[in-house]
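Researcher: Sequence recovery benchmark, item below. Answer with residues only.
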């Protein structure tokens, strides 16, 4: 279910708001990822045959690649930060339908999932994550793509499109709390995380890894035993544990200033010149960490100078709208990308799937 808003048109039953190739680099040498169930995602829609590893900007990077190479490229960028439990596995509910329509890519960001952690303290800066995703587009995807980013991943792809519009065909910003303008009408998402209960002492187990996604969701149905087991395997990886320690010790001095600067610069650029490609802002209507009003504030800024923009809300979903309502999520993404291809929509359309 979704509500939509579009900057050119409004459709009934929906709240909707509409409002060249990469630099030549030698391709990396992809290798198939290890086939253990903890890595492969056995028992989920995450096809182990589509998991690869490649060195990207000096970081051993696991990524998912599937779909017909003749189809348009689409890249899914997960959220979180170095050492958090977000990974490409988060997308496993939507991989199969999307790879039927696109040449699909989804990387694990550094220090997350099954990618390596940065080797030096400087690698934990926000800017290092931006460089990594840019290199991934250049070296692995090797061409412009539709960019879909969730949470802090939305800020990453937004920044990439502003800096390298040659790598972006469209943007889909999903529950983009790290990008939304501050407003006294709603608290910053950091407040939500500060109120989460502390994990049980000892080695990370199912209870620990479930805390955040349970609090972010209306239903726990998407937290299958298989998915939670993969989160536990990620949480216990030495690379992830090392990244968590680094962030605990240096995050406030290394990571946070860059994050705040990136957000401020992105909002300033959007306000001054808009986004360079058609942009969909997609939000779980019941997102508890960053409420729907934050999506409206972000879209209000985007639509003023962005040629084609839409805001769509997915009902019955919190922060992980693509996990709680995967069919609605895929439908909205495919519909918007079709509209962008056909030149439909326009400045400021609001729409909702309901």
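Model:
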């Amino acid at each position: 279910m979704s509500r939509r808003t579009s900057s050119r048109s409004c459709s009934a039953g929906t709240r909707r708001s509409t409002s060249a190739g990469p630099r030549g680099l030698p391709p990396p040498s992809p290798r198939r990822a290890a086939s253990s169930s903890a890595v492969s995602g056995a028992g989920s829609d995450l096809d182990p045959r589509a998991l690869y590893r490649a060195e990207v900007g000096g970081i051993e990077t696991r990524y998912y690649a599937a779909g017909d190479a003749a189809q348009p490229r689409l890249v899914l960028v997960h959220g979180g930060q170095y050492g958090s439990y977000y990974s490409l596995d988060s997308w496993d509910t939507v991989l199969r339908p999307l790879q039927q329509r696109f040449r699909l890519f989804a990387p694990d960001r550094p220090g997350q999932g099954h990618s390596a952690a940065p080797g030096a303290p400087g690698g934990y800066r926000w800017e290092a994550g931006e460089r990594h995703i840019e290199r991934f587009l250049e070296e692995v995807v090797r061409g412009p793509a539709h960019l879909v980013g969730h949470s802090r991943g939305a800020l990453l792809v937004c920044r990439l499109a502003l800096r390298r519009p040659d790598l972006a065909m469209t943007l889909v910003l999903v529950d983009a709390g790290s990008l939304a303008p501050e407003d006294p009408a709603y608290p910053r998402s950091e407040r939500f995380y500060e109120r989460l209960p502390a994990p049980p002492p000892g080695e990370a187990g199912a209870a620990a890894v479930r805390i955040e996604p349970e609090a972010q969701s209306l239903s726990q149905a998407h937290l299958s035993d298989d998915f939670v087991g993969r989160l536990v395997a990620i949480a216990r990886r030495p690379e992830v544990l090392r990244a968590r320690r680094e962030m605990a010790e240096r995050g406030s001095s290394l990571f946070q200033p860059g994050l705040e600067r990136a957000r401020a610069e992105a909002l300033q650029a959007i306000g001054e010149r808009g986004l360079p490609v058609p942009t969909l802002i997609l939000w779980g209507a019941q997102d508890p960490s960053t409420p729907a009003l934050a999506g409206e504030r972000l879209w209000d800024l985007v639509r003023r100078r962005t040629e084609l923009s839409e805001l769509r809300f997915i009902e019955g979903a919190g922060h992980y709208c693509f996990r709680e309502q995967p069919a609605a999520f895929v439908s909205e993404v495919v519909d918007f990308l079709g509209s962008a291809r056909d030149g439909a929509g326009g400045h400021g359309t609001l729409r909702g799937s309901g």
